Amino acid sequence: MWYKRLLAFSLIVFLCAVSLPVSVARADTDSEQVSRERKVLFEHMQAITGVPWQYLAAVDQYERSVRKSSKKTEDSSPSQTRLTGISVPSAMWRGVLNPLDTDVNPRSIAFFGGIGKDGDGDGKADLRNDLDVVYTIACYLGQFGFTDNDLRISLWQYYTYDRSVETISGLVKLYRHHNTLHLVGSAFPVPLHYSYSYKNTWGDPRGWGGRRIHEGTDIFAGYGTPVRATRHGVIESMGWNPYGGWRIGIRDVDTIYHYYAHLNGFNKKFKVGDIVAPGDVIGYVGSSGYGKPGTSGKFPPHLHYGIYKDRGNGEYSFDPYPSLKRWENEERKNQSKKKKR
Is Signal among the key words of this record (predicted)? Predict the structure, then answer.
């Protein structure tokens, strides 16, 4: 059939465009080279299916990030030789009523209602083949059309979880803005030349509003000290929280949620949905919180900084202290290098 010849030709073009074979590129390697190869693959599928490459890249990044957080070990999880990390549940791929667990025949898969497709023209719909998997996901996402609303409907139908749709949509926005998958870099939450102090307080008991643990690290600094974005991300929330006072929430490129609380105010340059980069000033240290909107002064001024991982069906807090120490040390080293030049 004509489309199989097109797929085969496109595959040749794709393989010529990358320097490493698909079969040996590790899915968990976040090098710039691998990021470029993934982008070439997603652009290749966009040319065939019409689905924007940013959506395919966002699904891939979301799947890999969630898998790291939840430590999934399902049979359908990508092997270490895969270039991408997209994982389609086996039953969904082959069809729930399909008696063959390892069926790779596109016709029988379609007969039993599976979504698996042949993406490279070899006559097989192989769950372990990057081209088959990405082509299948592209066809699934494009079933209702190619506008953002159409693609969001397909995403919700696939994941049936609002958080997944919002996170992937945020990643799409990042990739559209930067036109690259290689988004690296970090910044300590407050400028190093300001006076500040902090220690590991994650997990300490807290009593206001009921017994709970402290889900973050407190960085004590003077009123008005600039608060900075630590990673590339998208602002998800901005406003008042009874516990955190004036707070900002940012979802980064690894789908981690960064929570900045007890602020004195926001940088008016930013609003919900905006893209931020490491070092962008997003607000200022204060002592707001523990009450109705405007409550302030119940504790010394400080930044409460928390980070949360998405496991695909919910989020959990984890200790930000190691990341803070690493970012602080990296920034000091970079500053020292600049002074020596």
Answer: yes
Q: How many CA atoms lie within 13 A of 163 on its CB side?
A: 14
Residue at token pair 């069906």: 313
Assess whether pLDDT exceeds 70 at residue 11: no
Q: Are residues 25 and 127 both part of a single domain?
A: yes
CA distance 106 to 118: 7
pLDDT band with cut points at 50, 70 and 90 for residue 77 = low
Angle formed at CA 58 by CA 178 and CA 165, multiple of 5 degrees? 120
Residue 223 has pLDDT above 60, yes or no: yes
Q: Terminal CA-to-CA distance of the chain, rounded, Å?
A: 62
Range of the domain at 131: 2-178
Contact 65, 310 (CB under 8 A): yes
Which residues are paired to 221 by β-bridges? 196
Percentage of the chain beyond pLDDT 70 is 85
Q: What are phi and psi of 239, to 5 degrees?
A: 155, -155
Asked if 153 contacts 160 with a C-beta cutoff of 8 angstroms, the reply is no
214 and 97 both lie in a single domain:
no
- Euclidean distance between CA atoms 12 and 8, whole angstroms: 6
User: How sure is the predictor about 174, in pLDDT bands with cuts at 50, 70 and 90?
Assistant: very high
Q: How sure is the predictor about 204, in pLDDT bands with cuts at 50, 70 and 90?
A: confident
Task: Could you list the beta-strand ranges (E) of 268-318.
Answer: 275-276, 281-285, 302-310, 315-318
- pLDDT value for 5: 46
Residues 32 and 158 in one domain: yes
| Total number of domains in the chain | 2
Contact (CB, 8 A) for 142 and 53: no
Q: Measure Cα distances from 205 to 34, 127, 202, 211, 290 in Å.
A: 43, 46, 9, 7, 15
